[in-house]
Predict the 3D structure of the following.
Amino acid sequence: MNVVRHWFTQQRGYTPFDFQQQTWDAQLAGASGLVHAPTGMGKTFAVGLGPMMRWCDAHPDRQSWAALKSPPLTMLWITPLRALASDTANSLREPIEDVGLPWTLELRTGDVSSSIKARQKKRLPSVLVTTPESLSLLLSYADAKAKFAHVQSVVVDEWHELMSTKRGTQTELGLARLRRWNPAMQTWGLSATMGNLEQARDVLLGRAKAKSGVLIRGESQKAVRIETIVPDDLERFPWAGHLGLKLLPQVLDELDKVGSALLFTNTRSQAELWFAAIVKHRPNWIGEVALHHGSLDRKLRQKVEDLLREGKLRCVVCTSSLDLGVDFSPVDRVFQVGSPKGVARLMQRAGRSGHQPGAVSRVLGVPTHAFELIEFAAARVGIEGKRVESRRPLDRPIDVLVQHLVTVAAGGGFDEHALYEEVKATYAFRDLSAEQWQWAMDFVTRGGKALYAYPHYRRVAPPNGDGQYHVSSQQIAKQHRMGIGTITSDAAMIVKLARGRSLGTVEESFIARLKPGDRFLFAGQPLELIKTQNMTAYVRRATRLSGNVPRWQGGKSPLSTQLADAVRAKFDDALAERFTDDEMRAVRPLLELQRQWSRLPAADELLIESATSREGHHLFAYPFQGRLVHEGLGALLAYRLSQQAPRSITATVNDYGLELMCPEPIAMDEKAWRDVLSTDRLVEDLLACLNATELARRQFREIARVAGLIFTGYPGQSKSTRQLQASSELFYDVFAEFDADNLLLDQARREVLEEQLEVRRLKQALERIEAMRLVRVTLEQLSPLAFPLWAEHLRENHVTSEHWSDRVRAMAVALEKVADDG
DNA sequence: GACCTGCTGCGGCCTG
């Protein structure tokens, strides 16, 4: 028996799971593929031991191992997270050391010491655990080929997370490079649950291997159970709102019962508030409850992760910052506060509990308003029906290609034709046309049409006798390396204790509203602002809490299509009087009101409600397509209506529908509605109304950085957002004027349409609506579906001098009264 | 004193 397998079964005493066995067999047979494996089931060993077994088979004489010293880089492991890199290294080190393989193993991420980096500049270890960015960096050194020529297998961990991002594309390009140097190289990916695993495998393997690729599905789906805290009294439960502290007592009761828990929230400020609330009500838990989100200082987060790993925490309140990484033992209870947003997302979070094979993963939903009860019920249906979201791979992000061209030019140079073929072998650039390639080449060699006068943008020099393109100068190579990567983020303000450590970062706009002496809640503690200086807010601990919580302007993830459809189906259930779960029974009175005051929309109808309030005239429509689509749709409808007659219309959206508000009444018959809901000229109208130029301009900022047009400054002295903005705008304007066909501009527009507006989904929504009946209802009072939109509208537009909450409360009371009378 | 929506992730230089 192979010594590695022997180690696994005899020394460690493990019985391989089926998927581990299958993976090793496939790896020994020389195949590539993707493994779908639940967390905590030994996925590192599943893909990590095969290459070791292979090497042992090729070197059967153990006596000779010592003489081999450290073999060249044989196995490369790519992870999206630095924290995962060290966990993985620890797992892989075990068999290497126990078996006595002569392999060396090292990490290569941005935070390894400079001495290790210096050593790796000379020679790489036998096993290297790294990130997509660090791989790219290594590929940018002139001797890259010699260093990577012996790589026999590459493993990409958490591929589902990388695949649909530019980091994934960068990984694809790096893998294509390695495959060219060693065509027999095996590629293996690890992925959590997603809807398009086959495609994920194909993207990972690229053109050459896609046909022979294997897909191994791990353990039969682990059971996931979704439970929900159902409010005792729905009448007093909010119809809108997002904090959900209403259910705090029930959550505390649950926390009392368990030893350890993770409480996921959807936003950072929500996490801060929940953390503060828990500590306030359970003061004796101080030290056992922790907070974890992306704006906290890395050191604070690291500490929480360590304590979590050691099993010393009773509860961690977190955002998706704990979705991945941190190899801790499963917790007893997982909470999801607020909308689950997606089926896969809820499954992944549930998976943080009940790790043992056969154990059930459970998640307890904590709705923050009444309709979220339906979302949890819908997510359960989604999981049972295995209707899990897909992740869509990117199509030809030119900025990533441009960056890669300079990387490769610095990394030993390239032959143009060969590199074109290599790039086209990736899934992302499989349809790259000769013209597009030419454009990219021209852009890096001459600066394109617009920048040819600036030598600085001639980053790649044409062949000089050897047929190879090379980077123009070492200075350019150096600067390029500083900009490698595809993650861009704006500068944030550091929050620092006056005498002491940094607590994390908040947005400048938040601090700008405060004066010295004002208090706010951050990093789980009350703070008082002392002064601001150099993008740093100096604070001291305050004794009393303030309700002021930083708000970050983050992504606005919409309800996924799968979950939105499932929610829609739950309305059908209600229509058919099928109230089969606790959540639906709990919201029944609310749905009953919706039916009485308006209508429960059936699957084949689009409900349009109109109402009059002292703000003006409102139209509400409910396509159930998630907020991004509704944003596009709202803007489109407002635009088209104002084209018909001059009037000012504001649109407000949420995940279920949209509201159009106008000071004057908008009289529309069926035909008028059909016209404004038409798919004709959809993209043109969207571009016209969304001030697409402005959106594209903003999007271009990121593209310009990835493409290497903007130097963001040396580490530690990064340029301000304003500076970066100014230079990217300059490029935008120059391109728009002198190089209108610039592919980077085109990409900016594409990204706005596809990612920010989800045009594809919007178009599908409109097509569906075409086949639907339009049902129009005039409301006497706001319906339960309309109420959250109305409240959102007030919040966004500050339309009333009365305080927002007073107004909302007053309306809620009025509605309650009507409900009671009815 | 109450009210509050919006995620995550990486990398780099200089000197002797």
User: Anything to note?
Assistant: DSSP finds 33 helices and 25 strands in chain A. The longest helix of chain A spans residues 82-99. The mean pLDDT of chain A is 90.
